[in-house]
Amino acid sequence: MARIIGGIGTSHVPTIGLAYDKGKQEDPAWKPLFDGYKPIADWLAKEKPDALIMIYNDHCSSFFFDFYPTFALGIGSEFSVADEGAGLRNLPPLPGNVELQAHIAESLVNDEFDLTIFQDKPLDHGCFSPLPLLWPHKPEWPGCVVPLAVNVLQFPLPTARRCYRLGQAIKRAIESYPEDLKVVVVGTGGLSHQVHGERVGFNNIEWDHEFLELLQNDPEKLTELTHKDFVERGGAESVEQIMWLTMRGALNDSIQQKHVNYYLATTTAMTAVLYENA
Description:
Helix content is about 35%, strand content about 20%. With about 280 residues, the chain is α/β, with parallel strands linked by helices. The protein is globular and about 45 Å long. Keywords: Dioxygenase, Oxidoreductase.
């Protein structure tokens, strides 16, 4: 049977991809961030997962506000990079495992999650910003992806509890898949940041670390928070933390934090954390 071996939480700030493409890995302003991903990349290289489930939000690259689904699962043999206005990044398409994706889709619907299914849609920086820091991509990516887009842009949003329960349903889906696969679940976005409005540039370091502690040891407490709670504590865009809760719900109750890197050098608390199932 397939099994989930761990989870990753990562920021998906678009400037990470820009800095990567411009070769700024040794730049003093960026080196602490890039170095913070190396232990996770080493772990992935050692464990060799067959698939990453990428939980992300689309930034109006493939969906727009006239049709913006709550949960959207991609099914396809490959997913290309979205052009977000600055030209295509020099990254190969991400391969997909259609049989695994279709199984997850059917399992989640049977678990009463009403999904939107998409095909032939490119993926934006929600997926592609952190991926080259985690996986090598030359000449090709080492495994496949299952893209799962969550609405954190247009209200009404799914609740924190609903996202956590979605992760639990993903766990059931993976563990019912008959092929012997190793899977890692990646929750993207967050942590505290606000990129517009009166509180532009807002961060809350204390809350970020409290969130990480609760995510590991008491995620149910986080499911009690409203969207207003997340926004007040971490800024408008920190509501993306509900995607980390989806990742956490897919893991065992008991997990080990193998690595964490927290770097606040811009308006966003850029974070990378690795969990292993205990």
